[in-house]
What we know:
Elements: H1 4-20, E1 37-39, H2 48-52, H3 91-99, E2 114-116, H4 121-129, H5 142-150, H6 153-157, E3 164-171, E4 200-205, E5 213-215, H7 227-239, E6 244-250, H8 260-269, E7 273-276, E8 279-287, H9 298-305, E9 307-312, H10 322-328, E10 332-335, H11 354-357, E11 359-360, H12 363-367, H13 373-378, H14 382-399, H15 416-438
Parallel strand pairs: 1-2, 2-3, 3-4, 4-5, 6-8, 6-9, 9-10, 10-11
Antiparallel strand pairs: 7-8
Helix pairs in contact: 7-14
The chain binds 2-acetamido-2-deoxy-beta-D-glucopyranose (4 copies).
Amino acid sequence: xxxxxxxxxxxxxxxxxxxxxxxxxxxxxxxxxxxxxxxxxxxxxxxxxxxxxxxxxxxxxxxxxxxxxxxxxxxxxxxxxxxxxxxxxxxxxxxxxxxxxxxxxxxxxxxxxxxxxxxxxxxxxxxxxxxxxxxxxxxxxxxxxxxxxxxxxxxxxxxxxxxxxxxxxxxxxxxxxxxxxxxxxxxxxxxxxxxxxxxxxxxxxxxxxxxxxxxxxxxxxxxxxxxxxxxxxxxxxxxxxxxxxxxxxxxxxxxxxxxxxxxxxxxxxxxxxxxxxxxxxxxxxxxxxxxxxxxxxxxxxxxxxxxxxxxxxxxxxxxxxxxxxxxxxxxxxxxxxxxxxxxxxxxxxxxxxxxxxxxxxxxxxxxxxxxxxxxxxxxxxxxxxxxxxxxxxxxxxxxxxxxxxxxxxxxxxxxxxxxxxxxxxxxxxxxxxxxxxxx
Length: 439
Ligand SMILES: *[C@@H]1O[C@H](CO)[C@@H](O)[C@H](O)[C@H]1NC(C)=O
Ligand SMILES: *[C@@H]1O[C@H](CO)[C@@H](O)[C@H](O)[C@H]1NC(C)=O
Ligand SMILES: *[C@@H]1O[C@H](CO)[C@@H](O)[C@H](O)[C@H]1NC(C)=O
Ligand SMILES: *[C@@H]1O[C@H](CO)[C@@H](O)[C@H](O)[C@H]1NC(C)=O
């Protein structure tokens, strides 16, 4: 794309401008008690400078095309208002941009209930994961820690870092390399460093027994600018005719070793077309091998809109962005591991409501005991299926990231960002209450 450098420069300068002229207009209607956040000023080498190197990770991907629109990426179509070619790695930018319009910002760190670190941790991690610093992965974060200690050290010292938080837009697994692993196998050690034990890290997938980290939804491609756009999408989802019974959008499952993706492929290919009442297709596979779907939401959103159930098997890691795409399409997610969502996104999708909007089938039953997914799903009464879909649609606003600078009335609808901030504040507050209790 020839225009990328210009767009990139424009994006970054707009960002710089915004940083210097904090946008938030403290509104008189907002009660900020207990919700004040201070954005820590960091040198640009911790955020914006990293974006200029977007084309310099040959083993990764040139991520320059994903930077426009403050990290939402290009629009899918010039006339599109809500749909973008969003890359999940850009959550750090998306969050930063939304933080700038948060309604309870304070310039005074002593008045803040929480301190946000606008550090693009996962982008900075690329040089350790795929670049020249692969053998120094235990150093990831130390430079930031040093900065926090020597520049206005009082801000950290006030709460020993317990009130600090940041976003790391990859699975925690990528930052959990044991410190003494030599040579390193995979990942940086950011979350293993005692220096950052007290900091809250919002990641795309948390560890099974997290301490610092908590999972937040993957950003999808849907970022409506106003309530009207969200509501019109919800109406479309509700009206959509579901002619496919179950769908899997993804890759993998072609190796000979038994695994859940392979079982799904087998079940789908042996039973491609059948007429079962209103269904035209029993099972559909949208082939997303080699990342072809990643920045092309039309490929999978259309089929998902027409499907009743969307299969969400684990891949390299238990979670998938596709879970959130399917919720936006009104397609009922089918999970095969508790770690794929239930034990992860507890802030956005409370554990106790999973039965109301999703199906759980243990993967061992399918892979080793021959349980057929289609039979389990066929056993669910139609009225229950309809209620589940209604619940999925009801949850939609909670898992999408609305567009920054969205219309004022839209801000009353809590989206994934708002819920993450609220829960982070709550978590930080309860840390202090625990401490007081121990004293
Ligand atoms: C960007 O890349 C250049 C050259 O590869 C390197 O010297 C510089 O430190 C990088 N900047 C950041 C912020 O990583
Ligand atoms: C990292 O260490 C391995 C093993 O010691 C070595 O083969 C490799 O060249 C090193 N990589 C870099 C980029 O220094
Ligand atoms: C983290 O908090 C504990 C007390 O809860 C404190 O002893 C420790 O020094 C803090 N760590 C850092 C790096 O500030
Ligand atoms: C196709 O699905 C039907 C209904 O679930 C099942 O009875 C049949 O055995 C399947 N056919 C194959 C070839 O798997």
